Every structure is written in structure tokens, then in C-alpha cells.
Amino acid sequence: MIKVVAIGDVHGQWAAVWQVLKAATAANNKLEPSSAVKEGRFRVVFMGDLVHYKDKNAYAQAINEEPYDPNNPIHLKRAAKAQIRELYRFKDYVDAANGNVEIILGNHDESALDHKYELATRGGLKHNEFNEKRGGIPLPSDLKEWMSSFKREIIIHGVQFAHAGPTVGLMQFDDFFYHDTNTKKWWYTKPELLMQTGNRFGIYGHTVMKEGIYIDKEHHFAMIDALEHSQFLEMILDDDRLDYRVMQFKSTRAYRSD
């Protein structure tokens, strides 16, 4: 029997990430894995999208200048460097966790790696800070290699963890993924998809939950892109047990990168 801590899309919200990990006793005050994580009694799963801030305010805060201009190469490079610094800090934590912290590949992570699709917010804010051709700087080769190793799906005791949804089509970030409205709507238009996979429960991110973590008890899945609500999901699992609860952590600004 293990405890699994599931954390929604990051998008550069590193202060919240460390607050979650400490609240879940998965990290200590030095931002190192706890003994429970190192020993495998706790497993931590991140739902992906480590990169790309969600709005201009977050970008402005990261580069310490307002307003943020996504067409200014100086701003792009500073936004990239701010994220790279935090990715290295996080990678150190993951590397020290003895394989008990895993990250799902998100579509924003893949975009930062291959630039096949130019992603933007609904408001038109483009995420080009890692695209050298657009004025940004590429991810360092070691970070690219690390992020390229992220899995598209993890299954623990019959519980599926994937970035956007339960089917193969929702795990491949191609033209179908970006042009099909079901990518973000399946969880309420086709909630039976998870039950068709044979998994007993599913955990997904990708779609922001405006009212906090959403759990569909009838169809056995949870949508957990809710870091803005200071929430994460905690599960106790073995082959015969599946208990879960939404956890609330105290959001503060006590942690700040330097």
C-alpha cells in the first residue's frame, strides 16, 4: 500500500509546487525529497506542463518588469532563463527521489522541446521563450533529454495518470489533439471514456478547473488542474484499495527563487 500525491499542471507556479510538496510531507524545508518519498512509501505524480506561464502577469513577475512583451527578445530570454533555473532546481529534487517522483509529458512541455506547434493563451499570449527562431533561447540539452523522457501515461494499481485524458488520442499532441474540441470537453461530454480503458480510476490535468479539483464519482476520474486553488489530490492505493481526497494547502509567498 502506498500514498500517491498527484499535482496538477505547473506552468511555472514553482512556489505553489514546493508548498504542495511540503504540505504533503513529500519534501523538507531544503526542498529535498522526504524519507517517505525516497523509500517509496509515497509516490508523487505531476500531470505535466511544467513550462510556460499562464498569463502576462506571471511572465512580468518572472522577469521583474512590466508590462511583459512577448515580442521582445530580451523579455523572452529572461522568461526562459527564469524557468530554466527553476527546472534545474526541480530536477535535483526528482533525481534524488529514487524514481518515486514521476512527471507526465504535457503538450506545453512537448512544444518547448520541438516547437512543432506555437502555443498561446486564449488571450493571444504566445509562448515562444524557448524557441530560438522566435527570439527566445532553447532549453539546455540536459533538460531536453530529461523532459523527453517524461511518460505520456502512468498506471499505478489500476489508476491511470495522463495529461489530458484517458485515450491514446488525448495523449498524442498532434493536429487531431489541437483541433478537436473534445480535448478539453471530454470530461463532461464523454465522461464514459475512462471506463472504456479498463482502468479503475483516472487522474488528468490540461483543463483548468475554475472551481477547484473536479471528481466524477460515477465515471471514476478526477480533473486536477487546480494549483491556483491551492489544491492537490492524495490517494491511498493498493490492488484492493482506492481512497482519495482533495487536499488544500496554505498558499503563501514565503518561497522565492533567487
List keywords for this structure.
single chain, 258 residues, alpha/beta, Purple Acid Phosphatase, chain A, domain 2, 5-stranded mixed beta sheet, 29% helix, globular, disordered C terminus
Q: Nutshell version of this structure?
A:
This protein is α/β, with parallel strands linked by helices. The chain contains eight helices and ten strands.
What does this structure look like?
The chain has 258 residues and is α/β, with parallel strands linked by helices. Helix 3 packs across helix 4. A hairpin with a 2-residue loop joins strand 9 (231-238) and strand 10. The chain has a domain at 2-48 and 96-113 and 141-248: Purple Acid Phosphatase, chain A, domain 2 (4-Layer Sandwich). The strands form 2 sheets. The chain has a 5-stranded mixed beta sheet with strand order 3-2-1-9-10. The protein has a 5-stranded mixed beta sheet with strand order 4-5-6-8-7, with helices on one face. 29% of the residues lie in helices and 21% in strands. The termini are far apart.
